[in-house]
Specification:
212 residues, mainly alpha, three-stranded antiparallel β-sheet, 8 helices
Length: 212
């Protein structure tokens, strides 16, 4: 009987801890889903703490857990000198999520410089064409469109020489690894600060750390 009671007590404690962790992750995910734009780490902590009182370490631990589940993503934004976090919408395809992440980081992927295999054609308007447009000879319209296609092709060739998509992917992966190591270091500094009874900023001064 004592063995059965001990097993039941351990199960209830474990279930309570799991429910508490899930509740904290739900708060973080709910806050991110309400946003119309990604949040920096400080903005995320402030928004979560306005919903539920929890330490910064718990907020970031919940965020990291959601990221491992694929529910949250983050990227480093050089212009802000900070990580930004956003909720992943399950209805989006991987390609759309990838494009969204690249856009947040601030890179622009050029179009592939391939020769057009079909003649360029513009969408037809349902409205009746104006008299001025109808008066332009068809041959002149074709020549104008061909000039536009040639200009676009030249621009695509120029952009393809400036960017390498493989190098861009490798750069993004390296940034992702750097951000993970930096977050881990911040969490460790936070734990040390709590044990010593000082702030994280004081820990930066102790170890002479300048994140900028």
């Amino acid at each position: 009987l004592r063995h059965v009671l001990n097993q039941r007590w351990r199960f209830e404690v474990h279930a309570g801890d799991s429910a508490m962790a899930m509740s904290e992750q739900d708060v973080v995910l709910g806050v991110l889903k309400q946003q119309t734009a990604p949040l920096t780490k400080d903005e995320l902590v402030e928004a979560v703490q306005s919903e539920k009182s929890m330490p910064i370490q718990v907020v970031m631990a919940s965020t990291n857990g959601l990221e491992k589940q694929g529910a949250v993503e983050h990227r480093w934004v050089a212009a802000l000198k900070a990580n930004v976090y956003w909720a992943v919408h399950r209805t989006h395809t991987n390609s759309k999520r990838r494009a969204s992440a690249v856009a947040i980081v601030g890179f622009k992927t050029p179009k592939s410089a391939k020769t057009l295999s079909k003649p360029f054609s513009t969408p037809r308007s349902r409205d009746k064409p104006s008299t001025a447009a109808a008066a332009v000879p068809l041959a002149e319209q074709v020549a104008t469109l061909r000039s536009e296609v040639q200009a676009l092709q030249t621009e695509a060739d120029t952009l393809s020489g400036l960017y390498d998509t493989k190098e861009l992917d490798a750069h993004i992966d390296n940034l992702h690894k750097y951000n993970e190591m930096k977050d881990l270091a911040q969490d460790l500094l936070g734990d040390l600060a709590v044990k010593r009874g000082i702030t994280v900023q004081d820990m930066h001064q102790v170890y002479d750390i300048d994140w900028d």
